[in-house]
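Record type: monomer structure entry
Structure origin: computed from sequence
Chain ID: A
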Amino acid sequence: MQFLSLASAWFIAALPIIAAMYLLKRTYERKEMASNLLWRRVLNEQEANRPWQKLRARWLLLLQLLIGMLLVVALMQPVLTRQAAPTGHAVIVIDRSVGMATKPSEANDSSAASRLELATMQAVDWVDQQSGKRPVTLISTGPHPEVLANQVRDKSELKRMLFGIVPNYGKSDRIAALSLADSIIQDDPSGEIIIYTDGQWADAEEANQLRFQSPVSLVFVDENTPNNNLSIMYFGIKAASNGMDVNNGVITVRNESKQAERLRLDVYAVTSEDERKLVARPEIDVPAGEWTSVEVPNLPPAHYYKAQIHGSNDRFTADNTSYQFLANPKERQALLVTEGNMFLEKALRLAGVQAVKINPEQPAPEEEQTSQVDWIVLDGIHAAMLEDTNWSKLLEQKPLWMIDHPNPLDEGAAVPPNNRVETKEHVVTSYLTFSDTHIGRIAKPDSADVSWGEAILSYGGIPVIYAGMYDGNPRLRFTFNFQDTDLPLRPEFPVLVVQAAEWMSGTNQLELGTAVSGQQVDVSFHSETVQAEWVMVESSIERVEADKQAATLDLSAPGLYSVPVLPGLYRLLESSKDNKVVGDRLLAVTNDFTELSTALARAESKPQLELQWSNDKAGGLQADDSRMPEQQISLQFFAALLLLLVMGLEWEVYRRGLSG
């Protein structure tokens, strides 16, 4: 407590005067009385007013001295000095980079809180200590900074937004988040920025060069935890070179710790029917701070493979699992029913299709022979073959590519009146113009024979290519013979066959491979796709409820598409307008290893991050209270109120005659 007017303390001299009034009482004249029995009270009064007698404690005296003291204290203007509750605009920046998803300790408890969860709890405590009138803006880092709350005063709303922040496993642009925070409060002289982070930034050097216009407080979370993390840096699969129906794998493991580790890896093969089988369990010695690779040979064929560090419970577990697919998928096989077509055979070979030739006059092959055939190319439609029961059954079971051989004597054939080309957007006709291409004769099938598809290319006003689906299988029909046109001599012919092979492969498209969380990738879709969605198959994150609901892609804005943000295995499902699946491909999503390596490369002495602002010489302050303005609270009102209470008590004492 302080006094603003110490000079008023001189009024304390009035207290002895009050005491003197009780010492210097008035005296009475002596007179003889016949008896003093009736005057005992008068005698007592006379005794009380005798001057210079010993001062006795009296209620009235004590109350009057207290009143005088309160008057003196009030005149001295007493005040209480304390730091004023900040009311300026505050911006909280939550670092949610992949390093903040690591555990703060080496405890074996899988439910241990991550750094981000610890930062969230500290931010909640900070919010509880603030005035309810203080505006707070909440920003989270990520690929782009996100403003979660803008000048919000409701503490419950701020807490709800804080608890909803999840880690970002991809790249984080923290410089943009800091610049955004500084620009938000640059016009508020009492504003401040509070950053919750682990301090280990890949762009720390660039951040340290920034000069902020407002005070910056860095709150470091778990800055002294020792380094300890194991991760699968690479997992590759390729077909065996000996021609056997097996695959070989290579797994690279990194040891981000100060001691060597002997690890056991579990490798699973998962079939298209989601049947999981443990196919290998190699052991590997990884020196401290280094990485080591191990080969995993003779893996059986599978839809995809999963490699996992067995029994690891390190600081970050999302990188303990990796998914991979065959880099060079099995060569596609096509049953080519033809009397001989050299151009088509060579074009199919360029498209990566192994053509198994058969003459149309031969009987239909057995089911065992066609089990490995992906689709059928019917080079010339022969009535006798269509009438054969076995051939008809086989042609209905497999994807079918039909090529007409119109006969000059056939009344259903037509000669195009001109060479005008009209195309519809389709996988088969992409990048093709057919300019200056000559087609001599075109077959005109009945509408019932092509009811399964639509014309995607017309020549001279006559459809020459039909595409569609029949009983769930892709189907093509070329209504002209390659030998009646100069198309095989043109550069567009191999492109046409390659794209036709992709269409005939249907759902056997190549998998999407591996991408970093939040990365944008170029995805090509099936021509009949009207809806595409990401569906999580497996999650690589512990204690996270995997979001099994599909995330729909916006196909109306073609270009790059963002992959899911949680590490794991995803399926990209493509559906046609009649809700049939026309595409099913897998994508493995990983965390950003460069961000994680920076977060784990901890300095031995102090954090790498030291931010500065233009009005402070020392950056990186930890909740420095010296910048807070002081607030004075006057006590005069309370002194005056107490004075009135004491004066009322004095009057009651006097009224009751208790002055003696």
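Annotation 1: The longest strand covers residues 229-239.
Annotation 2: The chain is about 20% helix and 30% strand.
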